[in-house]
Amino acid sequence: MSSADIAVGVYSKLENEDFRLLSIIEAGMAQHEYVPVEQIHKFSKVPLDRITYSLGKINKLGLIYQSKGAYTGHTLNYAGYDCLAIHALVKACVIGSFGQTLGVGKEADVYDALTPEGKRIAVKFHRLGRISFRQTRRKRGYIKEHSTWLYQSHLAAEREYHAMKQACEHGVAVPAPLGQNRHVIAMGMIEGGELARYKDIGKPEKVLREILRNIKRAYQKAHLIHADLSEYNIILQPDAHILIIDWPQAVKTDHANAAELLQRDLKNVLTYFNRKFRVNLAVEDAYKYVVGEAKRLPV
Questions:
Q1: Rounded to whole angstroms, how far apart are CA atoms 141 and 154?
Q2: How distant, in Å, are the alpha carbons of 176, 194, 269 from that of 277?
């Protein structure tokens, strides 16, 4: 069971006082690995017996870790962090209820959900703690030394949300960004599957042209480069149109390594189409099209 499963399962059992203690622990983690009960008591301004009861409750529900050494302290785990993010998005009227898991990956979990009006959406929980710090740092240059997994996941979600918002505003085919809090993003529903899963996509040349048009629009209109593009984060929808997902590593077109990152994205996509569907297009030709040096594609 993932931490989001735990959070969704226990969310309705939590009261305002429980959320307040979770928030105080979150804030206290900036200075303490385990936040002392005395500090929680100081900032909560509620009687100690009620704090003891609430801490016992949220510990039993699996939302915090407790340490009993020189002092008794508490720290959030991912499930507790999930609950705080869910609570904020529920209060903002972005999420009404949760459904089933849509996907579990190395760095994120995605869930089916409903808005308060009953519209289906997707909710993504970033989980950078599943891979090593060295791997995370290598893949994501914005990660700072000594930052916690919770902070890294928060930063990844924040970056992805802003990139998706920028891309969406300029007509790039991305899920509509609806809200973000901490390490969680709510977005428009993702229907279909990863391009890598399909043996037959009908007209591969047509699909490739649509992908490249969106890379071009992201580059020229939104001034963004995905920087991690492959057949695993291009969604082929039931109507045969595409969505490009997973934007936390996106960079601006004025980035020092912009040309290299764009070429890598194009190479990943073109290598896949050549290998899987025998559609051959040179990276150089695609690059010229995306940056505006060529008006048409030879495919």
A1: 15
A2: 30, 15, 12
| CATH 3.40.50.1100 assigned to 94-188 | no
pTM: 0.91
Looking at 18, 82, 109, 228, which residue is catalytic?
228
pLDDT (tens digit, 9 = 90+) per residue, 23-60? Answer: 999 999 999 999 999 999 999 988 999 999 999 999 99
The top-level CATH class assigned to 3-80 is: mainly alpha
Rounded CA-CA distance 162/183 in Å is: 13
* CA atoms within a 13 Å half-sphere pointing along the CA-CB vector of 53: 8
Domain with CATH 1.10.10.10 in the chain: 3-80
Q: For residue 63, how far is the Cα from the chain centroid?
A: 21
Asked if residues 286 and 270 have their Cβ atoms less than 8 Å apart, the reply is yes
- Where do the DSSP E strands lie in the chain? 35-36, 64-68, 72-76, 97-104, 108-114, 120-126, 177-181, 184-188, 193-194, 224-225, 234-236, 242-244, 251-252
What beta strand segments (E) does 69-143 contain?
72-76, 97-104, 108-114, 120-126
What's the rounded mean pLDDT across residues 52-81? 94
First to last CA, the chain: 46
For residue 203, give every residue at least 6 positions away whose Cβ sits within 8 Å of its Cβ, in sequence order, or none. none
239 is catalytic: no
pLDDT > 70: percent of the chain: 94
Model confidence pLDDT, tens digit, residues 109-130: 999 999 999 999 999 999 986 4
DSSP string, 62-83: TSEEEEESSSEEEEE-HHHHHH
Q: How far is CA 241 from the centre of its chain?
A: 22
Residue 120, CB half-sphere, CA atoms under 13 Å: how many?
9
Asked whether 37 and 51 are in contact (CB, 8 A), the reply is: yes
CATH number 1.10.510.10 is the correct assignment for the domain at 193-291: yes
Residues of the chain with CATH 1.10.510.10: 193-291
